[in-house]
Amino acid sequence: MSGEMGAEIAAPHGLMVGHPRRWFALPVLLTGAFLPILDFNVVNLALPSIQQGLGATAGDVQFVISAYAATYAVFLITGGRLGDWLGRKRMFLLGVAGFTCASLLCGLATSPDMLIAARVLQALTATGMAPQVLASIRVLFPPAEQATALGLYGATFGLANIMGQILGGLLVSAHPFGLTWQTIFLINIPVGLLAFAGGWLFLADTRAEDAGRLDLGGVALLSSMLGLLVYPLVEGREAGWPIWAVCMLAAVPAMLAAFIAFERRVKI
Predict the structure, then answer these.
(1) How many domains does the chain have?
(2) Helix (H) or strand (E) holding 126
(3) pTM, 2 dp
(4) What are the beta bridge partners of residue 16?
């Protein structure tokens, strides 16, 4: 067997049973869904501490959140396509390893710019990890068990949102090892290491047999459009709305039109 069917085992009388390690793989996969959402929410309560510790402006701390969210939104579909093409286990492990390293860089940041750059890297690596979760559940579990697995997958998002708020406040106020805001990122390191080990041991490498080529032009145009929109909205007010901010915002409709025209040509 190859592709997605390689993740399933034929059972007697034509039934299909899931991959034998699927229930060991599920907690690992759910960790990959949990971390990106947790890291978006956990930062909120630490923003005053980040601003004080790094001497950041209001625009800087806003961009700590916005840069992560925008990057994650833009490249999430691309991460899923890469998993279909290159293999979901491979992309999951690369994503977990990259996210763990990026979290370390966030915790070691000594300036707002370094933290923002590390957050962008966090989001990029998260897009290699998160899309593989749902796709892997779909092929590792037989239809009879998919409802349970998908229910746990959905509950993971709610838990991540709640834990992000609780954990952010606890870590910043507890000052473990004399640290403040850094701990909200450094805590990802042991979790990421465990997820990587579990993924290496328990995940089956599946991929889509009909995975098409990446739409690199569309990704570039959409990324440019969001950059032109998000950056001036975050930094423009702090800078007093200079001409560059107005020009960037004015260019957004043209970039959107270019993206739509490009995608129409791709479909032809």
Answers:
(1) 2
(2) helix 112-129
(3) 0.81
(4) 10
